[in-house]
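Run log // design_07
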């Protein structure tokens, strides 16, 4: 009697039950993989951001509560971005060097509330300049590399003195990582990490973020002269190599979903901790899709975050961090 030939291996077998799918999972996403970006407000009340539904600017008095929420959900680190009042913004961004500015006050408030949560702080001048650029500009509107780097070094030191755990330069000036690393070492901040925005693209996905830090109406021109062109990938590897050589502890790719190929390239080439920033426009698209019934919000959030892990990211900065962590049961 002959028997019909059947496939020796049926890949569907391992997918039949939830316990089996979990056991065979190639990548695992946990709250420990998330960094929660928070916007800091000057006043005393929560300020919802219209273009980022569900996201607010938080006053100093409330930022400790956000840290406690993050800790309870298993999120290990918060990323901070200030909305500096316009009257404190200037061409040279001098408010960035004020040890009592919004960023420094927020760092201290978080550390007072939850001493053992990580704090990552943005180093760039755009939240402090009257022209909206990440650095100093000349009379022709060009962003000046070396003078800007000198100010960024001072900004990083101010933040480190305030208690920042991770300095994250997002400005894309050449050589600033090495200058910051040398200054931190000389000042005794040998344990303060640097997460370099190594491959930061001049992207159309940043719009809601500029609303959140109130630079959309201020920005003169664009940032294509110092942020990367979306057409380039080999250049991203050169940027990462430079930042690692200058002392970066980890590197970041920004934006996230449109640049998963860059995350994978960086991970494969360097084998270092790579983080991705799921930026404001990505968040807003998921929220818009869910709002019109185009997809289940929870499923969309978790699936997109898993895509970063699958691409090789060690972690993700995402405005969905608290929601995702709670979905995971953190």
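design_07 sequence
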């Amino acid at each position: 009697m002959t028997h019909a030939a059947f496939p020796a291996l049926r890949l569907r077998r391992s997918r039949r039950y939830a316990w089996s799918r979990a056991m065979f999972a190639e990548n695992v996403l946990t709250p420990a993989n998330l960094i929660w970006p928070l916007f800091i407000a000057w006043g005393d009340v929560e300020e919802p951001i219209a273009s980022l539904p569900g996201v607010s600017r938080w006053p100093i008095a409330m930022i400790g509560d956000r840290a406690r929420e993050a800790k309870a959900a298993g999120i290990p680190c918060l990323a901070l971005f200030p909305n500096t009042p316009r009257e404190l913004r200037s061409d040279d961004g001098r408010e960035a060097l004020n040890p009592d500015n919004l960023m420094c006050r927020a760092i201290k408030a978080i550390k007072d509330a939850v001493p053992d949560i990580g704090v990552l702080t943005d180093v760039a001048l755009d939240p402090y300049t009257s022209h909206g650029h990440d650095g100093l500009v000349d009379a022709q509107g060009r962003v000046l590399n070396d003078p800007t780097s000198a100010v960024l070094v001072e900004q990083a030191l101010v933040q480190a003195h305030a208690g920042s755990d991770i300095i994250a330069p997002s400005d894309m000036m050449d050589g600033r990582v090495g200058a910051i690393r040398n200054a931190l070492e000389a000042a005794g901040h040998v344990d303060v990490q640097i997460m370099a925005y190594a491959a930061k693209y001049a992207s159309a996905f940043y719009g809601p973020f500029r609303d959140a830090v109130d630079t959309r109406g201020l920005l003169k021109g664009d940032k294509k002269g110092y942020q990367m062109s979306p057409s380039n990938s080999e250049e991203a590897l050169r940027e990462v190599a430079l930042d690692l050589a200058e002392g970066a502890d980890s590197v970041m790719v920004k934006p996230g979903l449109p640049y998963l190929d860059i995350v994978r390239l960086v991970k494969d080439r360097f084998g270092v901790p790579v983080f991705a920033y799921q930026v404001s426009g990505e968040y807003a698209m998921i929220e818009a899709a869910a709002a019109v019934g185009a997809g289940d919000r929870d499923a969309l959030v978790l699936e997109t975050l898993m895509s970063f892990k699958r691409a090789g990211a060690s972690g993700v900065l995402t405005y969905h961090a608290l929601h995702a962590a709670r979905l995971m049961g953190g």
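The first strand starts at residue 34 and ends at 41.
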